[in-house]
Write a structure and sequence with these properties.
It contains eight helices and four strands; from the N terminus they run H-H-E-H-H-E-H-H-E-H-E-H. By secondary structure, it is an alpha+beta fold. The protein has a four-stranded antiparallel beta sheet with strand order 1-2-4-3. Helix 1 packs across helix 6 and helix 2 crosses helix 6. The radius of gyration is 18 Å and the shape is globular. It holds the Pfam family Nitroreductase.
Length: 196
């Protein structure tokens, strides 16, 4: 076997997993979201930055505000999803580095410039977005990640401190009826991988 991961788990996380567009009414609990985070927090980031911030949208009022910032094709499924998460990069992540990267006390100083912090926060939080989606799948749930939204509107409406930048909105739940679009093709190994 080339992979150490059990084939059933491989299917759950990758081969059989799909982006869900409809969901059942089954709730997604705080216990499930905590378990997802407790798993994905171990995914690597540069200098252990961990810039991802997760905002769970549970109230009807917050859901309605969010829907107003989504593209038309994303509104109906977001209104019906059991749980919606706004995934954002914390552009002030460097303030946590003294405790999260303690063996290099000067780490925080490397991110004194805002532009440098924003680039690093975006890159590393996007890695964590991928971990989050896999974590949702590991919980036996389906994720519906979306990038069709007014980012500036979401930032202003949900992160008024100006320190966060939205990266994705993810609908979460158990897949409902006709949840899947047909599987799109994937590039082959030969199309993607080269060796030098």
């Amino acid at each position: 076997m080339s992979l150490a991961l059990d084939p059933v788990a491989q299917d759950l996380l990758f081969r059989e997993a799909r982006t869900a567009n409809t969901f059942t009414d089954d709730p997604v609990t705080d216990e499930q979201t905590k378990a997802i985070y407790e798993l994905i927090k171990y995914g690597p980031t540069s200098m252990n930055q961990q810039p991802l911030r997760i905002l769970l949208v549970r109230s009807a009022e917050a859901r309605e505000r969010l829907i107003g910032h989504l593209s038309e094709g994303n509104r109906k499924k977001t209104a019906a999803a059991p749980l919606v998460a706004i995934l954002a990069a914390d552009n002030e992540f460097h303030e946590e580095l003294p405790s999260q990267f303690p063996h290099f006390p000067q780490a925080m100083d490397l991110f004194a410039e805002r532009a440098v912090r924003e680039r690093s926060a975006r890159l590393n939080a996007l890695l964590q977005v991928g971990y989050f989606i896999i974590g949702v799948r590991a919980a036996g749930l389906a994720a519906g990640p979306m990038t069709g939204f007014d980012a500036e509107g979401i930032d202003k409406g949900f992160f008024s401190d100006g320190e966060h930048s939205v990266l994705a909105v993810v609908n979460i739940g158990r897949p409902g009826e006709n949840a899947w679009f047909p599987r799109s093709p994937r590039l082959t190994y030969a199309q993607v991988v080269t060796t030098v």
